[in-house]
Amino acid sequence: MSYVLNTLTKKREVDSIISDTIDKVLVLRFGRASDSVCLLLDDLSKSAREVSNFTTVVLVGIDSEDVQVYINYFDITLIPSTIFFFNAHHMKMDSGTADHTKWVGAFHQKQDFIDVVEAIFGGAMKGKLIVNCPLPPERIPKYQLLYKDVEEESPLASASDICCLSK
C-alpha cells in the first residue's frame, strides 16, 4: 500500500517538504516498503484522506544513502518510526516512553493515527512544541532493546547487534 503515499528518497526532498508545509502537520514515516509493520502503518495512513485538511503524510525510504543524515539525527534505529512537524518545527509527543521525538511502531487502529495527528495539530495551533499523547497506554507500542550475540568482552554493541521486541 505504500505506493499510495508519496515516497521521498533524497535529502533535498525531505528538506523541501519540511520547509514548504505550512499550517499543516507533516507526518514523515521512516521505513521500508518491504517491511510488513511499515506496510501496516501505511495501510493505516489511508486515513490521511480524512485528515488531509490539516495533515500531509509522506514516506521516507531509509535505505537511501541520501536520507541517512535524518536517520542519524533522529536516531532512527527501529522501524517504522514516525516524526511530526508543524511549520518546520519538530513536534514532540509525550507518550510515556523515554523518546518524545518520534512514534516508534505501527498504530493499532486507524483512529489512533487520527487522534495523534489531531492532538499534535491542536497543540501546534496553541504554540506548543510538545503535546501529550491522547491514546491510552495499552495502545502505545512499548519496545525493549535487547542485545543479541554480544560477547562479554565487548562492552559496546554495534547497531546490527540490536533487535527489538514488542511487549
Give structural notes.
With 167 residues, the protein is of the alpha/beta class. It has a single domain (7-164), classed as 3-Layer(aba) Sandwich (Glutaredoxin), CATH 3.40.30.10. The protein has helices spanning 11-20, 36-44, 68-73, 110-125; strands at residues 7-8, 25-31, 55-61, 81-86, 89-94, 103-104, 130-132, 143-147, 162-166. Strands 1, 2, 3, 4, 5, 6 and 7 form a seven-stranded mixed β-sheet that branches. Strand 4 (81-86) and strand 5 form a beta hairpin.
- Taking pLDDT < 50 over at least 5 consecutive residues as the criterion, the unreliable ranges are 150-167
Helix content: 10-25%
Order of helices and strands: EHEHEHEEEHEEE
Question: Can you identify the CATH superfamily?
Answer: Glutaredoxin
Total count of strands: 9
Average pLDDT value? Answer: 80
Task: Report the sheet-strand fraction.
Answer: 25-35%
Distance linking N and C termini:
26 Å
Q: What would you call the shape?
A: globular
- CATH class designation: Alpha Beta
Rg over C-alpha atoms, rounded to the nearest angstrom: 16 Å
The number of distinct structural domains comes to: 1
Task: Determine the structural class based on helices, strands and strand pairing.
Answer: alpha/beta
Count of helix runs: 4
CATH architecture: 3-Layer(aba) Sandwich
CATH topology call: Glutaredoxin
Major sheet: 7 strands, mixed
Function: Essential role in pre-mRNA splicing. Required in cell cycle progression for S/G(2) transition.
Keywords: Cell cycle, mRNA processing, mRNA splicing, Nucleus
InterPro entries: Dim1, Thioredoxin-like_sf
Organism: Ziziphus jujuba
